[in-house]
What we know:
By secondary structure, this protein is an alpha/beta fold. It has a domain at 4-24 and 31-106 and 163-203: Carbonic anhydrase (Beta-carbonic Anhydrase, Chain A). Helix content is 49%, strand content 14%. It has helices at 4-20, 28-38, 58-61, 81-94, 108-118, 126-139, 150-171, 174-183, and strands at residues 46-50, 69-73, 98-104, 186-192, 199-203. The chain has a 5-stranded mixed beta sheet with strand order 2-1-3-4-5, with helices on both faces. The two termini are 18 Å apart. The relative contact order is 0.17. The model has no long low-confidence stretch (mean pLDDT 93).
Amino acid sequence: MIGARVALEHLREGNRRFVAGAMPSRDALADRARLTALAAGQEPFAIILGCSDSRVPAEIVFDQGLGDLFVIRVAGNIVAPSQIGSVEFAAERFGTRLVVVLGHSRCGAILATLDELRRPTANQSHNLRAIVDRVRPSVEPLLRGPVGETDTLVREAVRANVRESVQQLRHGSAILEALIARDGLVVVGAEYALETGVVDFFDGVPDAP
């Protein structure tokens, strides 16, 4: 299994191809062979905890194929026990050493949380509230200070939420903490720009070797 730095560079290169429209055409025969080979097992080189938004499919924006990424998607890229367990599973079972929390611009879960904090609703679904309550701790402090333009607030809230999810993965699991300390597991935060397709890795990025 490749290390975190090499895995991160693979993702960066794939995103550059995606942004440039230079993704290679998929060979149907090669994909069929890959499908058959993967039936026996998998070795994903990166774990992606991303948002469920239909505009941010990780395999496409990073130009990766079958078996390359272990993808966990949930509205607002929040961290709950099931997400932590999924990351633990992939990191332990497959030896994957890079975890990326992938948020995105204009995230609907962030907008919904900000709206709820400013104008609480009386009869919100308890399931939706569970998502809002996971996002709340990262964005609520932003409303305590001077609130600028809405676009600026949302941008700051998206990144604050990513950072919070990164911290929860780094420090919310004894298994992941041990893998970080002893086995080179790296957890980074990133934001995908809906407007450009560019992924910006901005939190916890390891220095170049």
